[in-house]
Design a protein that fits this description.
single chain; about 170 residues; about 70% helix; 6 helices
């Protein structure tokens, strides 16, 4: 009995818009509340922000990451573009990161251990800067520069209780 082989056509449509939309919406929701203090933080507001953070930046980035990695490794529909592997890794990791942060905020637990998480995500963000700089994709590289700055600020904010960084990283507790 011969194994049947399926071949899928290459797709010029990479699903990164889904992940970027979720990321942008998450930063508007969480960042707006952190920077402007509106609505005022409360258990109800934190639960609502937790729900939004889980679905928009969390689920949409996780979905994008899985979509990219599956398309690259199992079905080869996006070609062998190395930067897309970095995008798949980043979207998957950042999606899970938002799941954890959102749940933490939903149940109103401590944000201080997020400082340890931020160390790993700082290195992931620096890797993204390097990969997309080498690929010549400056707009995506700049997104990773921004993420690098966020995690570089989050480490001392969470681990050393640096109060000035609190509004920049959305410190709610």
């Amino acid at each position: 009995m011969e194994a049947q082989v399926f071949t899928f056509a290459s797709s010029p449509f990479v699903p990164v818009a889904i992940g970027f939309f979720g990321l942008g919406t998450g930063y508007f929701i969480w960042g707006g509340q952190a920077l402007f203090g509106f609505p005022k933080a409360s258990p109800d507001v934190n639960r609502t922000l937790g729900i939004w953070g889980f679905w928009m930046p969390g689920f949409m980035q996780f979905l994008t990451g899985l979509y990219l990695l599956t398309g690259l490794t199992w079905f080869n529909v996006f070609g062998k573009a190395a930067p897309l592997y970095m995008a798949g890794l980043a979207f998957t990791a950042y999606g899970i990161h938002w799941f954890a942060m959102s749940y933490r905020r939903y149940i109103d637990s401590s944000a201080q251990p997020d400082g340890w998480m931020a160390i790993a995500f700082l290195f992931l963000s620096i890797l993204g800067v390097d990969v997309f700089r080498r690929a010549g994709n400056i707009p995506v590289m700049l997104i990773f520069v921004g993420l690098t700055l966020i995690y570089a600020i989050e480490i001392p904010t969470r681990l050393l209780s640096w109060t000035s960084g609190g509004r920049l990283v959305g410190c709610s507790n």
